Amino acid sequence: MEIRILIFSSIIFLFISCSDSTNTDNALTSDNIKIQNKVFNIKGEGVPIRTGPGNEFEKLINKKATEALGKAEYCTVDYSVKVGILEKKDDWAKIKIVDPEWLSESHIGWIPANIIMSQEEVNKESSMGELNQNDYEIIKTSHNSTVQNFHVLLKQKAFDKEYVYQFIKEFRKEHCTMNCNVLVYDTKAILPLIDIYPLEKKDYIKMADHLVSFSSSDATEIRDWYPYQDFKYRDYGGKNWKKNL
Q1: ∠35-48-245 over CA atoms, to 5°?
Q2: Nearest CA-CA partner of 200 in 241, 235, 158
Q3: Residue 97 and residue 89: Cα distance in Å, rounded?
Q4: What are phi and psi of 142, to 5 degrees?
């Protein structure tokens, strides 16, 4: 499991690291000075940063990922980052990522303004409250001296990304007392596969179909949705694609 966590972290680092010298103009107009010190959350996943205020403008190239993979990859924003607003034009906002700080010099460009969360939306998102113990079950733990590992069954039959992500956030508050990995499943049938690594073929497909989300100790804000549903899942013949739901 620790090996897989490192792999996930490396992939995350690769795909959000990029640079483009054409988008480093941070000048603010007088109308925008009042918002330069505010920090905003993002609602969305894989939203491309563009070079201008509109879909007709090019997406900002993720140079590191493009060079590594040999095909065009693009800079994006998602739930895991926080942004500052540099400028607004119509329904678009020019932003720079301020958290994580190491992206602040490269991730500068335009995104739809409606994916920037207002303070009211942030407050609503963080108001889930205490978890109902009837809604989930801790089906396995594997703690050690440096990290806690919780494998959690969601008992609800219907849930969406927002519910799961808020569930994990609240679960961390109630159960994690140190560095903590939280893995969320939708069936107990997955239990015999939890300690098997690497998984192959049918076992890999089964895990991919039922591991709903993974939240690692070193990237708690990353929102990972059906993490095993990847190129390997497709190569093995997996068909129950949920990743984009």
Answers
A1: 110
A2: 235
A3: 18
A4: -145, 75
Q: What secondary structure letter does DSSP report for 36?
A: T
Centroid of chain to Cα 242:
15
C-beta contacts of 3-6 below 8 A and 24+ residues apart: 3/197, 4/197, 5/181, 5/216, 5/217, 5/218
Chain segment 97-153, per-residue pLDDT in tens: 988 887 888 889 999 999 898 766 666 655 567 889 899 999 999 999 999 999 999
pTM: 0.60
Select from 125, 38, 123, 99 the least CA-distant residue to 222: 99
Residues 20-76 pLDDT 10s: 434 434 444 434 434 455 888 888 778 999 999 999 999 998 777 778 778 888 888
Contact 168, 154 (CB under 8 A): no
Residue 43, helix vs strand vs coil: coil
- For residues 143 and 165, give the distance between their C-alpha atoms in angstroms, rounded to a whole number: 22
- Decide if 78 contacts 47 (C-beta within 8 A): yes
The one-letter code for the residue type at 222 is I
CB 57 within 8 A of CB 11: no
| Other beta carbons less than 10 A from residue 156's beta carbon | 13
Q: Express the helix, strand and coil content of the chain in percent, nearest 5 each.
A: 35, 25, 40
